[in-house]
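Subject: Protein record for review, amino acid sequence with backbone structure tokens
How to read it: Take the token row as a discrete description of the fold.
Enclosed: The protein record, placed directly beneath this head.
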Amino acid sequence: MLVAKQPQATLSLKGWFCLAKSWKVGPNWTYIDFTLQEGVKFHNGEDFTAEDVKFSLERYLRKDLMWVYRGTLERKLDRVEIVDDYHVRLHCKEPFPEFFDLTSRFLRMLPKDYIKKVGDKKFAYQPVGTGPCKLTGYEHEQRIELETVGNHYRKTPDFKTYLQVTATDPATRFAMLKTGEIDMGAFGGIQVKQLQDDPKLRVIMIPQCFGRSLVMVDVAYPEPSVWKDARVRKAASLAIDREGIIKNLAYGGAERWADFLPSYCIGHDPSVKPDPYDPERAKKLLAEAGYPNGFEFELLTYTPVKQLGAALAANWKDVGIRAKMSVVDIGDWARRVCSQKERNKVIVIVSPWWSGGIEPAVSFLDMQTEWCGVPIPDWFREGYNKTTRAITDKEKAETGRELSRLLRESGIWMLLSSVSSPLGIGSRVESYEPVVGNYHPFRFEYIKLKKK
């Protein structure tokens, strides 16, 4: 039995492009043609056909289901045409190059007849898909049990069963991995160091999953604020010992970062470098700005990253910037961020959420929502729309780099680091290659176990 652990129990299946033999984009992105694999079956024995593709895409457009990227799909997709059982055509309202990135990770192909028969509610608890593992047991936020599918069209896993359990306490997860009760687990902080120090265990880092940022909320509003002064913002950045924080808190699970695009994304600019640690220059800039004795403000953070907040506050205190830190649970933090009513604050935030996307439009996608902490400026909307309409790689790179530059120069967001996802690997696992940038591990069928 293969046992794996993540803090939240989720069934993560492969994106649906492996279900297509080939695809073709029509002139000026007027349509996308997909020729489907034949002989693919859902776990209940039903054939996968173009009917399921049309049903799935139209289902994601239902407002009552509130799919997080419904707005993007609605804006871009005109209609879905079934050409024949294994040929489907997606008619586009405008260029949709980010479709492949977006939907391969977040849009699953669903069984039309099964859902029509059992309904949405039952399907949520008894789903069937086309992946190499089928669901055999489920307890909400407790466990997921899967069984492998023999002779799978993509790849049959080396193991027979898979169990994913929820253990929210990191120390408990570490003990389970050490004793062999689990073979893989999600970790962070000091547990990464413990994994690195144990000769029987090891760590696999999934790099550049998302950016860790600070939102200087006052910059987005018309009222006067100390944060409106570019010298103050520069001083705050120079006062941060990014390298020290990463070394002492992340244990290799992050890197200093300044570009709003990850290194694997079209348009990433390797010449963009983060500010150095220079507290003396920070003090001089504060004095020039009229704050020789510093100033006070509130730093809003949430429980899982309170150590980061404390480290930032300590760095800033050294140059006279006095942060009163508010640590709240993730629910309160989310409500306050989404309210867009905060003032005289800096907010620790998870953004941008890259998640392995190579399209700039996908890297910027979450930053056009209320999660970014402030009302979205017109210049960002215009720049984002340009990235979504770019067709060639050259156009994508140009629009992506320009929007990243505007984000950096706006002063609203300060990118601190790119964050990796550390996986603790037990002694039974010989190899596993996750997808770069994908925070939630999947492709478990490619786990190779050691022979007994």
